[in-house]
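Is phenylalanine placement plausible here? Inputs below.
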Amino acid sequence: LAHAAAPTGEPVKLGFFMSVTGRDASFGEAALRGSRLAVDDLNAAGGIFGRPVELVVEDNRSLPGESATAAKKLITRNKVVALIGECASSRTLEAAPVAQAAGLPLVTPASTNPKVTAVGDCIFRVCFADPFQGAVLATYAWKNLGLRRAALLIDSTAPYSVGLADVFAKTFTALGGAIVASQKYSGDAKDFRAQLTAIRSTQADTLFLPGYYVAAGLVAQQARELGLRSTLLGGDGFEAPQLIEIGGAALEGTVYSTHYSAESKAPASRRFVTAYRARYGAAPVGLAALSYDSVQLIADAVRRAGSTERGALKKALAATRDFPGITGRTTLDEHRDAIKEAAIMMVRGGQCVLVDSIRP
Ligand code: PHE
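Reply from A.M.:
I modeled the complex. Tokens:
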């Protein structure tokens, strides 16, 4: 980096709301790490218009009902110019109407449910959406893994889970596969034995779990205890360093899709992985990279808008084309969704290994 003058004056504030603690704390940690790295990189390069960038953090503790309040506080009290959050679609859906009503841009790094950006023209996402992710998973299961009989285990309280299961089932049956079971659980469940026992009797060769890493680890354990041998399949919600800590050897052979792999050979990604490792002592997950990109993309839009004014910033964000980031190039379509590749990961020898990349 060239030496830039230290930024001075009124900070440009970005509001960050996420599950920093609670059930999904691993998501909050990754998102915060990626965002902080981006803010520090921006400030080392002179800030925005010579002003420092500041991240104002609100923790929703992974609880429902907290994210709208967090968004209101960040907008009214902290006077942020844009919001970054959430990871879980359920919580982004709580905050999005607040941002939309205020006319203030919200960028979600990782919420994949289609309803999120449908809230309105102030809501943007820098990742792919679930119509793509669900189709990718079903096609991969059918073609690459040779799976034919799928059981679904759905978190009925999470729009992410319900939506992803739906797309998966439609694509899998269109390919000729069968959905042999559809069982439900609710977000904080710890015991899945009743559902898994019902699934065991269906001779499913795959168990599709569109859920988050805690449920994934517990389901893997309990499924193996019950003698269920189906291949465990999931989406981006599986990705967390804690996945393997919770599920252990029971996860061997699990396949899931995600947004990015730290194994990527792209120069920008390599530099990011090195900086991230130096600072945090671990490799970044996709959510960390997407969060880094969210901050940089907002900064880029502020520069292109020539202003932090809400309407101008919203317009500049909507016009994002080929923005070079850690997760590849971001182009936002007419629904304010990014079109991105999916990475397919497999658990092998206790490691999550990149096995394929699927283009849109
Ligand atoms: N895509 C998930 C959702 O919409 C959230 C998620 C993204 C979780 C990335 C982990 C990693 O709810």
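Short version: Residues 37 and 279 are 9 Å apart (CA to CA).
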